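Exercise 7. Predict the joint structure of the components listed below.
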Amino acid sequence: MGNEAERAEPAIRSIDFHGRAGEYFGIWISNLFLSIVTLGIYSAWAKVRRVRYFYNATRIQGTPFSYHATGKQILIGRVVSCVVIAVYTLITTFVPLAVLPFSIAFAIALPWLINRSLRFQARMTSWRNVRFDWHGTYGKNFLFFLVCPLVAMLSLGLLMPPISRATYRYFAESHAFGVTRFRTRATVAAYYKAFLAALVLPVAAAVAVGAAVALTQPGFAAGGWLGLLPFLMVPAFAFLFMFQVMYRVACRNILLRSMTLGDAVTFDSRLGPLRVLWIALSNAVAILFSLGLLVPWAMVRTYRYQAENTGVGLADDAPAFLDAQTQAVGAFGEEFMDLEGLEFGI
Amino acid sequence: MDAPHLVDGRFFPPLSSAGQPARLRVAPGEGAPMVSAALADGTALDALAVDDVQAGDTLHFAGGGSFIADRPLPPEVTALFQSPMRRRIARLEAFSLPKAVLLGLALILCVAGVRAALPAAARAVALAVPERLERTIGDRSYATLARMGLAASEIPEERRQTLARRAADLAGAARLTRRPEIVFHRAPGFGANAMALPGGPIVVTDALVELLGSDDAVLAVLAHEMAHVERRHSLQQVLAVAGAAAMASVVLGVDDSLLEELSATVVNVWSFKNSRDFEKEADLVGMDILRAGGMDPALLADAIAALTTQACARLAGDARARCLSEAGAAETGWLSTHPGAKDRLGYLREALGR
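Solution:
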């Protein structure tokens, strides 16, 4: 801590994103067109185009991110996963009981797939000529991505904050820029606060809807709560969706604000949970009513909001981070798990 | 030969983010351009192989180094490092309103084309699947069904044998290439039903035989099921749905779970439509089979009428009459696997010429 007091906190600057919806629309529709004409084969190259567009348009201190995956690597991953999914679909259609062994095999393979996918993603990303890396392990992936969500559910959410803290921490600290790992130091209390805050609005909305139904439709109450069930599904889904979006935004803020890279780099994140909710909902409406044509606009809009509200503080003497490992890895697993969640550093 | 381009920027050696000022010299030539760099510390680097150019100002070299220009590179320099194919795609990607409209229309046409071609493609692929494999799939599904709730039939052995023999005669008379085995089971979970598994067998529930009563009516339903097997409908359906799902994931496969849900719904609705087309085909082919076997094709229409009104049989009086009229008038729904009674009996009557 003393070390920090001596050093001047580097000034935080938000990440530049200069992508434009019109520009991306051209890439998006060309991608779609070429993917269909080539019966899906081009979609691998389309993915490279898409990711590159967003990475290249993202700059920290004037330096853009680069994406190094090639269409061929991604195509191989896609072909393998397509074959697996096709075999699975065919077999389970005719032998429904085969779902069980398949699911078990999938659960066993999943941590390995996540590892491959995250490592591939990290190593294909570079900034200032240095690639990112992922140091996760099979055992910890199993614990954090399979066991922990289950425990969080079984505890009815009560254990969610400490689990989120551990999971987000694992995710961030297993990532490295070159050979330097990211570090985080958020407290469990911060996550509990975020958890409670994320509950307020959804609970209020659910109570309001419930009261409205009970008051305007007295017949339902008389018919017993089972009759209410179909009417409860929609608010329950909305409740979960709202909570999930808001909680995830809060976790991202907590994580990034507490994250550092060496002594040189600090981060900041100031996403507004309500704003993110509004963007997600209005995007969905815009996409539906434009028959999908506004997808590029929605993507650029979402990305821009994230970039504008994410900051990076670089010390003037930011040391050169050396990249120790840049060997190529196969793309397999990448298509199975496009692990959503936080785009740290972006 | 064109004059070389000189570009100022920073050079980063492999594996390092410690860059230093440098001047890059790009000389266009036959084939790949010649790239060399003069670094601020006096080092000269020759014959640099450029992997790709990103963000309009960043060159990545084979082996890991990179160069970031102080200003965006002129387009003619960027173009030097693009393959002819990449340059053509880049021209396609450059945004303009007329092009967007044109591409949008071409896209809609493509989707419509693929949608129309899918059933045909599924048919072609289904025909290419070896019959042995199809039979294996059918046998496996039968074994699974049997475990899930098929009990021994209570229909007298003699009647079952007669029905199976007459079905075989019918298949012979209609010159069918596939002669599926007919098996009878008591299956409370399935109601009055008959199922054609890929490549056979055809499973008939006791409830169906009891509901239809006469052997001729049961044979009419069997003709419909044999048509499914003959045309390999189950296999086609699986292939077509898999193809549609694959196409949908290409079209809508951005990282958006909401859109994925949407595409799954569209594929499902479409697969129901596909299934209804198969049912209609099986009805029409089934009537041909009956005709070929010297039986009255109207039997099929009567059997289907009996099946659609079976639920009404338990009711009495007015309720029964209302139920019957509703069942007969049922419209084809978006989400039905079989055509609605109104449509179905309509085209059956039309095919019978009455």
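Discussion. The CA atoms of residues 217 and 223 of chain A lie 11 Å apart.
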